[in-house]
Design brief:
The complex is a heterodimer of chains A (58) and B (243).
Chain A: H1 6-11, H2 16-57
Chain B: H1 2-8, H2 11-43, H3 57-84, H4 87-119, H5 127-148, H6 152-166, H7 169-179, H8 199-231, H9 236-242
Helix pairs in contact in B: 2-8, 3-4, 3-6, 3-8, 4-5, 4-8, 5-6, 5-7
The chains are: A mainly alpha (58), B mainly alpha (243).
Amino acid sequence: MYFENLSELLTMQGHGAFVWSAYGIALMVFIINIASPIIKRKFFIKNRKKYQNHESKT
Amino acid sequence: MWQWFHRLASPREFYSLTQKWLPWLSVLACLLLVTGVVWGLAFAPADYKQGNSFRIFYIHVPSAVLAQACYVSMAILSAVALIWRIKLAAMMAKSAAPLGAWLTFLALVTGSIWGKPTWGTWWFWDARLTSMLILLFLYLGVIALYNAIQNQTQAEKSAAILTFVGLINIPIIKFSVEWWNTLHQKATFKLTGEFTISQDMLTPFWVMLAGFVCFFILALLLRTRLEILQREQKTSWVQGVLK
């Protein structure tokens, strides 16, 4: 490892806040882009099934 | 081979084929990204001038490269949809727009965060930064057109026209650091294969770039599959899928 210990890895000689926040935002962007279509798909399927059940009853 | 592509152009075939790709792509993207992040954050050496802030490079550059690649792909898909009337291409072009916007946003934000310790400012109206901001607006414009126009065909045509007009911005982004005096550094990578970066900093970059590409394909497939379900919801095969 480039750093001597965990504390050095976290602080990165004063650049820790910049580096970690950039990686945190990247993680957020990844999660949003993967979770969003999965959640929307689930809602869509749920609504569609409700609609189909309603149609078959009437 | 041509027949395979022809089959893949059918939304139904695409939907069932990509179902098998998703788990593999997810595992590959996770492996590459985790390896790249650990390597880039903890094992790559710090830059002699920029120190540890240089590590932002491993997410800033792949997101900027993919944001531009996504725009070019969107233009190609729109052209394919307009010329050959392939529905799947239109669906993929629409699905690529929000993904491209997110990648551009990520490139701008990480660039801004990197700029503070390196240049002493969060933002500067130089050619590279401004042209990337224009790219974000172009993506938002395309998304707005898709949402504003009720008629699907008309929305696709209008979005395609805006995408084609915006293509001019791609070479401007690429060459902005050479055409104008910018605060942004010159390209680290050139298509000619010259690298101005040492090998132990470069290898984690390739891993991260591969991870970003896998993530991009995965996210695009997920969005396109949802678009297919929504548009083809009245067909018998989608009703079969929904059961």
